[in-house]
Write a structure and sequence with these properties.
By secondary structure, this protein is an alpha+beta fold. It is 27% helix and 22% strand. The protein contains three helices and five strands, in the order αββββαβα. The strands form two sheets. A three-stranded mixed β-sheet has the order 3-4-5, covered by helices on one side. The radius of gyration is 14 Å and the shape is globular.
């Protein structure tokens, strides 16, 4: 049986998933609202930068692919896309805001 990564390791795994339009990972963009283990599965609540995000399906597919790569096969993933609270540039990490030129987003 494969060991289940801890939450910090899973968050690191999610950093390998990028929003291809923006060129930054979904964790630093602030798209991940919740990541935890509940009843033997990983639950992820997230958002997109916009409800009209044309890359939403690709991002979701990439999340599932990365989770499958690190989780034992018996561990499920429940991913929920939320629109509240709506994403704002201030949700990005300071490093990401700086890299993308959003230094005044705070």
């Amino acid at each position: 049986m494969t060991a289940i990564p801890d939450i910090d390791q899973l968050m690191g795994t999610l950093k390998r998933v990028a929003d291809p339009e923006i060129g930054a990972n979904i964790v630093d963009l602030g798209l991940i609202y919740r990541l935890e283990f509940i009843n033997g599965q990983v639950e992820i609540d997230m958002t997109m930068t916009s409800p009209a995000c044309p890359m939403g399906d690709l991002i979701i597919d990439d999340i599932h692919a990365e989770m499958e790569r690190v989780l034992p096969p018996e561990t499920g993933v429940k991913l929920t896309v939320l629109w509240e609270p709506p994403w704002q540039p201030s949700m990005m990490s300071a490093e990401c805001r700086g890299r993308l030129g959003w230094r005044d987003a705070d």
